[in-house]
Design a protein that fits this description.
2 domains, 21 helices
């Protein structure tokens, strides 16, 4: 037998560089905000290490109890934010492998992209943004506080989670590589100068498109979201299967499948086949179209090796890894259909109405009386804002302390948003019930979170 049995980091980096396409990011190029000494015998590459850190994070585990579209505890099979995340990672790896991109980087970005999502899907995100902007009449934040709180958007909050809110070391955050941090932020729309309190803007290249691995996650996120929202909507009875078959994209797929599909009498099998083929259609189009765009870019710039690509990498379009124009039109038709008949369905709207009431009530309670918050949140106010730990303040002085410091602080307003954004649906409902609908058998789980 020739060669070493154990393949250390240096060996794996060389092997990776030989395997990847010249337009892929190398693990050896990874940049971290904090320098960490890694043993030469380490068997993990940089982006693999980031993936592992995200997998072990508490915020990742909480995704299992966060709503995607349909409330997960109403049935066994609707997607949660966690299963959506895993599906994005799977589709992203498929695209990355076909295009010669770095699968470890894609997987790390995919697993971290929704860590900042609130409970109750996008409604929680919307309500927190309204509160922080002073547009919720039930939460009366002072004007001077609103001026300093900033906005709320889940991709920025995801970066805030991995940079600040996760604590697994002697410093805040997970110390992820800049490449993973950038991909997490740019998996959906971002803006230069967006009013959001990120602890560290370095390494994000806010004014430039994302690397191709991050773009692969962005399109995988779109494909997973729409096709699986459709499947969940069909299972919930929000939309008829016959109406789905009338979509132009469905007609094309059915025509290709031919008589075998049309003669199939088992409805469940036709439905599963159509969903599977939809995913395959979109992924295949992305791979083929993106491969052509990458080749055009490489040829136009005379790129012949990885180093010459690195010199031009920031000139790629943000939609280099994306659908063809024809398929994008089909995808947009599907997306509009899902919004009209599934996202706008009465059941989803009732869920959203409840979510609005829960998030608003929690924020109002925590802002009005900070002592209703778990002690670990108040300890964070002491550590980050320099306030006295409120439970140590004499009872006669609590009101003055709250009025004079907490209620004049944009930092405290943001701290409440961080706390609520991190909640699972289950925790948020428990807290709402304990504060708004008390009962003799009430559980107070907040202290243990």
């Amino acid at each position: 037998m020739n060669g070493t049995v154990i393949r250390d980091r240096r060996f794996l980096e060389d092997q990776e560089a030989a395997r990847l396409a010249l337009w892929a990011v190398r693990s050896a190029e990874a940049v971290r905000r904090r320098t960490v000494e890694e043993a030469e015998t380490s068997s993990r590459l940089a982006f693999q290490r980031d993936r592992d850190r995200i997998l072990h994070a508490r915020s990742f585990r909480r995704l299992k109890h966060k709503t995607q579209v349909f409330v997960p505890h109403t049935a066994d099979h609707p997607r949660t934010r966690l299963t959506h995340t895993l599906e994005v990672a799977q589709l992203g790896r498929t695209i990355a492998r076909a295009l010669g991109l770095n699968e470890d980087l894609v997987e790390a970005v995919a697993l971290g992209h929704d860590l900042g999502h609130t409970a109750f899907g996008h409604t929680g995100e919307t309500v927190l943004n309204e509160i922080l902007h002073g547009r919720n009449p039930e939460v009366d934040l002072p004007r001077e506080v609103v001026a300093g709180t900033g906005s709320f958007k889940h991709n920025y909050q995801s970066l805030r989670v991995v940079d600040l809110l996760e604590w697994r070391y002697e410093f805040p955050g997970l110390n992820l590589t800049d490449q993973v941090r950038e991909g997490i932020l740019k998996h959906t729309r971002w803006r230069v100068g967006f009013d959001f309190p990120l602890p560290d803007l370095e390494g994000l290249a806010l004014e430039r498109p994302c690397h191709l691995e991050g773009q692969a996650v962005a399109v995988a996120d779109e494909i997973a979201q729409q096709t699986h929202d459709l499947e969940d909507g069909l299972r919930a009875g929000s939309v008829s299967f016959e109406s789905v078959e009338e979509l132009e994209i469905s007609k094309r797929i059915i025509a290709r499948l031919g008589d075998g599909y049309r003669s199939e009498e088992r409805r469940w099998l036709r439905q599963n086949t159509l969903i599977r083929e939809l995913i395959g259609f979109f992924v295949t189009d992305v791979i083929q179209e993106s491969g052509g765009r990458i080749r055009t870019f490489v040829d136009r710039h005379g790129i012949t090796d990885h180093q010459s690509f690195v010199g031009n990498a920031r000139d790629v379009s943000q939609t280099t890894v994306w659908f063809s124009r024809d398929t994008e039109k089909l995808f947009d038709e599907l997306k509009a259909f899902i919004y009209q008949f599934i996202i706008n369905h009465i059941d989803v709207n009732r869920q959203d109405w409840r979510a609005r009431k829960v998030v608003t009530a929690l924020y109002r309670a925590f802002w009005t009386n900070p002592l209703t918050m778990p002690s670990y949140v108040l300890m964070r106010a002491r550590a980050e804002l320099g306030y006295s730990y409120l439970r140590d303040v004499p009872l006669a002085s609590v009101a003055d302390e709250v009025a004079g410091r907490y209620h004049t602080s944009a930092g405290f307003a943001r701290l409440i948003a961080d706390h609520i954004a991190g909640m699972s649906d289950r925790f948020a409902l428990e807290e709402f019930n304990s504060l708004e609908a008390p009962s003799p058998d009430q559980r107070f789980g907040g202290r243990n979170r």
